[in-house]
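Hi team,

Filling in the usual template for the complex we talked about on Friday. All components are listed, including any nucleic acid strands or ligand strings, so the model treats them as one assembly.

SUBMITTER: L.P.
PURPOSE: interface mapping
COMPONENTS: two
RESIDUES: 1152
SEQUENCES:
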Amino acid sequence: MEYGKIKKVIDKEKKGSVVQAVVLGCLIVAVILIVGTVWTGRSASIDAEKAVRNVSLLYLDELAGRREQVVASVIDDYINDLDVALGLIEKDDLSSLENLQAYQSKMKQLYGLEKFAFIDENGIIYTSRGTRNDLDQYGFDPYALSGPSVSIKNNGSNDKSMIIAVPVDRLDLCGETLIACFMEISMEHFLDDVSLQTGNNSTTFCNIYKSDGISFTGLVLGGLSAEDNLLSALENADFEESYSCDTVKNDFKEHHAGVVSFTYNGIKETLSYVPIHGTDWMLTYLIRESVISQQIDSISRGIIMRSLILSVILAAALLMISVFMVIQTRKAVHLASEQETAELMQQELEERIALQDELLEQEKLKTQQDNMITALASDYRGVYYIDLDSGKAICYRKDELGTDDIAPGDEFDYREKFSEYAENYVLDEYRDEFLKYTDAGKIRDALKENSIITLRYLVKKGGKETYEMLRMAGVTHVDDRNDHVVHAVGAGFTDIDSEMRSSLAKNQALSDALKTAEEASRAKTAFLSNMSHEIRTPMNAIIGLDSLALRKDDLSSDTKEYLEKIGASARHLLGLINDILDMSRIESGRIVLRKEEFSFRSMLEQINTMVMSQCSEKGLKYECRLTGGVADYYIGDDMKLKQVLINILSNAIKFTEAPGEITFDIERTNVFDDQSTLKFVIKDTGIGMDKSFIPRIFDSFTQEDGSRFNKYGSTGLGMAIAKNIVELMNGSISVESEKGAGTEFTVVITLKNCEHSSFDSNYINFNDLRILVVDDEEVAAEHAKLVLDEAGIKCRIALSGAEALSMLEVAHTKQEHFNLVLLDWKMPEMDGLAVAKEIRKRYDNETTVIILTSFYWDEIMDEALHIGVDSFLSKPLFASNVIDEFERIARKNNMSLFKEKQRSELKGKRILLAEDMEINAEIMKEVLSIKGALTEHAANGRIALNMFKEQDEFYYDAVLMDVRMPEMDGLETTEAIRALDRRDAATVPIIALTANAFDEDVQRSLQVGMNAHLSKPVEPERLYQSLEELIFEAQSGTA
Amino acid sequence: MITLDALKEYGADTEKGLAMCMGNEALYFRLVGSVPEEPRFAELTAAIEKKDYDAAFESAHALKGVLGNLSLTPLYEKASAITELLRKRTDMDYSGMIKELTDAKDALAKLCG
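RESULT (copied from the run log):
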């Protein structure tokens, strides 16, 4: 409430200051408005004055200019009148003075003139009334006249008249010569003509002055000055800045136009003056500035007045708004304070209610918590709060069966009590675990992993063993604390004896059941595998013994029939067992398809071999056709696929009688991404099936005719198995059949493509294969090389028979034989057969020779085989064909990669080694000594030659000749040896040893008579082989 | 005392070298030990200095053969490089290559020492 009072005071103060501020603001605004209005009014009047003055000056200039033109034109009119009058003169008029005077009178009347007179040479003036001599009165010189002249005649005081004079052309008047004529016009008349007669109360005054300042009208400055000379009157005027009397005087004298402002007799005036054309007069216009100022002042006053009125209206409006605002503000403030007061009271009330609610809530919660704790704790025999840091514990609850002296509310050292408890009650086998579990560090560690930790253990109390559980949970969750360490826990002890015992019993029952189930499953598995083994073994015995018995010659036909039936039944039983095993595997999902690379070609071969033999046995025609780019290799399960296909094919054979036909078509129908779809169609001309049976053909144990069972000896599982396998392969199997016409099975499966490009062969390692392709067509030869290179087979090409032979010679000498020569049959000069013949002649069976041809080779087959050609291949060449064919030949000839040559044992053989490098010689000796050969070393060719010469014939079995040696190199030495006159000179095998493996080097060695050329470093095996073969050759030849 | 490990570390293909000696370790070590004393090194250097490239090629070629037989790879490679250049009788400054060869030979001598 105190606050409210203060607030009101503050509000009052606030309200006062608001009013003050408003009033002050209004005052300031009013002052600004008034000052602003006055200032604008003043500046407006000044501006207006300036503007009016400028306009006045322009107006004066304009007026003066116009009036000057009027005056000038009036004067011109006078001159014209004079000229006209003179033009009217006639001779008669000049005949006498009287006549002249009459004429003059007429003209005077006609033009309203004062005088119309002539002047003679003597200056005598002839007027209409007589002659006069007062020429000097008229202000012009008749003798100097050359054109019209305008002058002023002063008649005294303000009475002036205007004289217009023109020269005349020497008129003769009674002996007197008239030289000029003039007319006198009264000033009043003139001023009337030029409308210069002015009244009073005018703001502007127009006047004409002579250049000396004499006024025509007699009035000066609109009659303000008493003088009749403007210039002298102006001497008494106060000129405004930039104007002066002298300027005016000078302008009058010089006949210049101009304007001046001055104050004369306290009246501000502006005078504009312009010279009058054709005279030396000045026309002036005068404006009384008092008049202008009055006008301006009235305008300014009007402006100021209007501004003031506007200001007053504005101020009034402002004041009204302010008053309104003040009233509104007061109202608002009043309302706000009222509202605030209400709110404050409301708030206070609410706070009180909230506090009450809170207290009630807390009370309720406390009761609830208490209830909950009681409820929860009722599960626990004892509940404790343990501070792990201090080791202090507080007991919260404890059952009456408590085993120690702690009561609820007691604080105690938990470690001491817990160990005591462990010691006294916990059974030996659980004690360590219990102690470990209650260790503060261990609790902390365990609670990091789990929010609640539990230990079950056995205690012995009152001679009875019961299961107990100790459960702990962090009082503050680890994550709630920054250090993530549990500082205190709640621990509860529970008796879980009955639960534990029943749970243990359940577990026992479950594990017993599981054990039983597992045993049953094992038993089933064992049974199945035993069945396959145990039943098959006696079955094999039955079948075996049965077939043995059947061979006996002395069988009665009855016995034979029984034995045959026994055999058939036994085979059927065996098949049944196998099928049942298969089926059980499929049904239990234990069949897993392999995803392995396999040779489709070889799978097909195996199938065909089997089917073909069965068909030929039964007298059926069998044909297997492959179309549409079926690859050699695929990825999948070839065993299962084979099983399916054999199954179907066997059925086909089974249900087809001779002379039937079975066809097996394989087609690749689709290739997408990395997969190929293959379609297998197996068609027979057998007994076929009834359409109604077709849907059931793939069911287990179904056969159309039960009677067939005996006849065909099938289990009825085969098709079911096939279908299951095909479905496992995501394939499809379908059948079409017509009773008595035959059956067609179609199997479609998808296999993964295989990037397999090498060709597995158990028999040969084709990396060691060296093939020479001989073809005169370079493109064909290159193609063959490409195909073989891709298969990883070393291949060289020769484009003619001669080239091939030369390459073979080099290879032979280097002991790097080609294993296989592929010879194109048709080649110019030397055809394939000729080359083959030469090869056999030179190198015997060193190399396998295959003839390549695009033609049927039947016509040359006999000849070719006679020459020693091993086989034929059709073009275009495929690596797999080559390998297969080579492998086939190798198998047939029972040989390894190379055709083995006959060899001699090296043991005891004497070898002459010509080698300049001691180290090499040592190695060679070691290599040869392994085989028991005796080596004699010569440090260079000359020594070797001498050693060879000195020994008996056939002393050395072979010579190993380093090619590069000092003194005498290998080539020279060989030549020298071959040139010796002794029996072994030509035959002793000489083998070149060199690091040079270039064909030219080999050719050179051959030219000098060496038998072989081995590259260094020499491979021992190759050295042995060369020596053995060459020694055998040499010695068998000479023997 | 020379060891297989030391030779291996030196860069020699001891397995191949031993195989050439038919597994006779003693022989292999003896032969390897004789390499640094091999007079062909000096002959090669002298021939190259005299720009007698025919003789130099003979020496280099012989050395290459021996080193290859013993599979002393670091020496063999250097000798091979020189041999191939000399095979074409390339007239150039061999001093750098000879120095490398000699250094490798000296390194081997140290191993054998």
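MY TAKE: The interface with chain B takes residues 916-920, 922-923, 926-927, 930, 964, 966, 995, 1016-1017, 1020 of chain A (CB under 8 Å). The longest strand of chain A covers residues 160-173.

Thanks, L.
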